[in-house]
């Protein structure tokens, strides 16, 4: 099954039960026109209160429970990753949080066990209500128009984005009309929020900044001058320098090893501390790794 068809099938099934879901991960990047490699691993964000109901709804509609929890059966990719991270004793979620629930492909598809549909609590990703984000995270609702429900922060994948090409993704065909995605600028906001939040976790920043650079590439190729890329209305002013680093392709700045300066400085600025001044005064928090 084509990824877009499968994604639409999942969100349409959930919408029929009154549950909204937002596409996330590599398949989301593909809708912006990225050529990032994708697996049959489909990630969705849901309002926290809906994840259990969504799991039950998918199981009741032909998706299958994970059966490959034992080595003998060949492990499910989700279980395998969970175990390998525990074995290496790395931080539990250095790269990407684990899903609250996952199911496997629909009973009538050929590759049902290799297909993972992972359900995540939105609160693990979306910026919470703060001075920086006074509107708070938008509710994730199925509906006629994502823009109206979410102050333009969620859009439908069939009405925005570039036309798909052989080598890159893009907008969904018009008949696959149930798939919500973050607007590109809201996705940038989310990734910067995650980069700042996780800058003390080894590895996490690398994933978020890697996705930010993918988004930046889409912006360069497809975005300039397009409405959905220019909706910076809700994009917090203090985060704009980091988006500018991405636009200027300053990947080395975003990926600095060790002290993760850009992200940590941003974090301090957000709580009202000037990092340069704090370094000069040898503030305790700035003594390590600088
Ligand atoms: Zn599984």
Give a description of the structure:
The protein has 290 residues and is α+β, with helices and mostly antiparallel strands. The protein has two domains: 3-182, no CATH class; 187-286, no CATH class. The chain has helices at 3-16, 26-31, 51-60, 77-87, 146-150, 184-197, 204-223, 227-230, 240-247, 251-254, 261-270, 275-280, and strands at 22-24, 41-46, 63-64, 101-106, 116-121, 154-156, 180-182. The strands form two sheets. The protein has a five-stranded mixed β-sheet with strand order 1-2-5-4-3. A two-stranded antiparallel sheet has the order 6-7. α6 (184-197) runs antiparallel to α7 (204-223) and α6 packs across α11. The longest helix has 20 residues, at 204-223. The radius of gyration is 20 Å and the shape is globular. The termini are far apart. The model has no long low-confidence stretch (mean pLDDT 81).
In short:
This protein has 290 residues and is an alpha+beta fold. The chain has helices at 3-16, 26-31, 51-60, 77-87, 146-150, 184-197, 204-223, 227-230, 240-247, 251-254, 261-270, 275-280; strands spanning 22-24, 41-46, 63-64, 101-106, 116-121, 154-156, 180-182.
Task: Reconstruct the topology from this structure.
Blueprint: H1 3-16, E1 22-24, H2 26-31, E2 41-46, H3 51-60, E3 63-64, H4 77-87, E4 101-106, E5 116-121, H5 146-150, E6 154-156, E7 180-182, H6 184-197, H7 204-223, H8 227-230, H9 240-247, H10 251-254, H11 261-270, H12 275-280
Parallel strand pairs: 2-5
Antiparallel strand pairs: 1-2, 3-4, 4-5, 6-7
Helix pairs in contact: 6-7, 6-11
Residues 66, 68, 76, 78-79, 102, 104 line the site of zinc ion.
């Amino acid at each position: 099954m084509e990824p877009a068809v499968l994604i639409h099938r999942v969100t349409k099934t959930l919408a029929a039960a009154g549950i909204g879901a937002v596409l996330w991960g590599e398949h989301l990047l593909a809708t912006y026109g990225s050529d990032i490699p994708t697996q049959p691993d489909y990630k969705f964000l849901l309002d926290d209160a809906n994840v259990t109901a969504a799991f039950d709804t998918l199981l009741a509609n032909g998706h299958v429970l994970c059966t490959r929890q034992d080595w003998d059966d060949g492990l499910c990719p989700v279980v395998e990753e969970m175990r390998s991270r525990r074995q290496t004793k790395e931080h539990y979620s250095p790269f990407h949080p684990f899903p609250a629930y996952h199911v496997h492909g629909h009973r009538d598809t050929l590759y049902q066990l290799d297909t993972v549909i992972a359900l995540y609590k939105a609160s693990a990703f979306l910026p919470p209500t703060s001075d920086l984000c006074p509107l708070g995270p938008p509710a994730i609702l199925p509906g006629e128009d994502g823009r109206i429900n979410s102050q333009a922060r969620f859009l439908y994948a069939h009405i925005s984005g570039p036309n798909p090409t052989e080598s890159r993704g893009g907008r969904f065909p018009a008949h696959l009309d149930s798939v919500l995605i973050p607007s590109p600028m809201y996705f940038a906001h989310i990734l910067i929020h995650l980069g700042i939040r996780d800058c003390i976790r080894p590895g996490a920043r690398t994933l978020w900044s890697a996705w930010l650079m993918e988004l930046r590439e889409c912006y360069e190729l497809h975005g300039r001058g397009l409405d959905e890329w220019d909706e910076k209305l809700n994009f917090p002013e203090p985060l704009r320098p980091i988006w500018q680093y991405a636009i200027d392709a300053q990947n080395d700045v975003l990926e600095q090893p060790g002290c993760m300066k850009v992200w940590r400085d941003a974090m301090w600025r957000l709580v009202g501390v000037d990092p340069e001044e704090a370094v000069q005064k040898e503030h305790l928090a700035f003594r390590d790794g600088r």
